[in-house]
């Protein structure tokens, strides 16, 4: 009897495994479990970037350190968090000297002064509110979905390595300007999303819509990749 039960159970398992309805049920269950996963790493990255921007604006202290020949500080009610004159920074942010003090990427300092740490710090800095909002919105749209699908470890590694790689490329090709922003990390996540789209191409019902959405994100981030003078 026990042998018969084991044999019958094995037959049922094989039938269920080959049953398309059962496979669809398991796939739906996996999708539900994935949707229930709460993303925490991407919100943490967003919070870190926002905090760094606030700290940068506090160090900038426009009312005390501004160049009087370039105009008045913007949003004076923010006091030391107010923005540089629009002539100097039209993105509502700090001065270039403050960004450099906080760790912005500059070729001369990395190569000749051996300040390699700037390859990491520059990806947590932003040129202004507009720059910050554009990058963080892109990060939320791209990153949360990828973290839910692939987990925080893989996405965290992709984000950090892509940001570092983008900094290296910037230091090689941009020698006369300083560079800040998370654009390199975002392009890495965008590449991961594109790879996922190509791998699972057959299961997407709206292939044209997905492709256009990725192209829109790429074009937006490409337009917002900033190098400061």
UniProtKB/TrEMBL annotation:
Q: Which residues form the Peptidase S54 rhomboid domain?
A: 114-223
Per UniProt, subcellular location reads as:
Membrane
Bilayer topology: Multi-pass membrane protein
**Which residue ranges have biased composition labelled Polar residues?**
17-26
Q: Which GO terms describe its biological process?
A: proteolysis
Name the predominant localization.
membrane
What reaction does this enzyme carry out catalytically?
Cleaves type-1 transmembrane domains using a catalytic dyad composed of serine and histidine that are contributed by different transmembrane domains
Q: Which GO terms describe its cellular component?
A: cytoplasm; endomembrane system; membrane
SUPFAM superfamilies in alphabetical order = Rhomboid-like (SSF144091)
Listed Pfam families: Rhomboid
Which UniProt keyword terms apply here?
Hydrolase, Membrane, Protease, Serine protease, Transmembrane, Transmembrane helix
Q: What is its EC number?
A: 3.4.21.105
Q: What InterPro entries does the record tag this protein with?
A: Peptidase_S54_rhomboid-like, Peptidase_S54_rhomboid_dom, Rhomboid-like_sf
Signal peptide feature range: none
Instruction: Tell me the GO molecular function terms.
Output: serine-type endopeptidase activity
Q: Which chain regions cross the lipid bilayer?
A: 37-60, 123-146, 152-174, 186-204
The record's region (Disordered) falls at 1-26
Residue stretches of biased makeup (Basic and acidic residues): 1-16
Similarity annotation: Belongs to the peptidase S54 family.
Cited function: Serine protease involved in intramembrane proteolysis.
Stated name of the protein: RHOMBOID-like protein
């Amino acid at each position: 009897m026990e042998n018969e039960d084991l044999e019958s159970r094995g037959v049922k398992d094989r039938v269920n495994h080959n049953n398309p309805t059962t496979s669809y049920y398991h796939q739906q269950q996996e999708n539900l479990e994935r949707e229930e996963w709460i993303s925490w790493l991407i919100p943490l990255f967003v919070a870190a970037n926002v905090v760094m921007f606030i700290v940068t604006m506090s160090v900038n202290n426009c009312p005390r350190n501004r160049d009087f020949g370039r105009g008045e500080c913007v949003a004076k009610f923010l006091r030391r968090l107010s923005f540089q004159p629009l002539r100097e920074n039209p993105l509502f942010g700090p001065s270039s000297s403050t960004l450099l003090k906080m760790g912005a990427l500059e070729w001369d300092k990395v190569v000749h002064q051996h300040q390699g740490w700037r390859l990491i710090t520059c990806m947590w800095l932003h040129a202004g509110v507009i720059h910050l909002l554009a990058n963080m919105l892109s990060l939320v749209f791209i990153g949360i979905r990828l973290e839910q699908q692939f987990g925080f470890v893989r996405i965290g590694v992709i984000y950090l390595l892509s940001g570092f790689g983008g900094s290296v490329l910037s230091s090689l090709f941009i020698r006369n300007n300083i560079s800040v922003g998370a654009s390199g990390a975002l392009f890495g996540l965008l590449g991961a999303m594109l790879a996922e789209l190509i791998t699972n191409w057959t299961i997407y019902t709206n292939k044209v819509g997905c492709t256009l959405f990725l192209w829109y994100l790429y074009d937006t981030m490409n337009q917002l990749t900033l190098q400061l003078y």
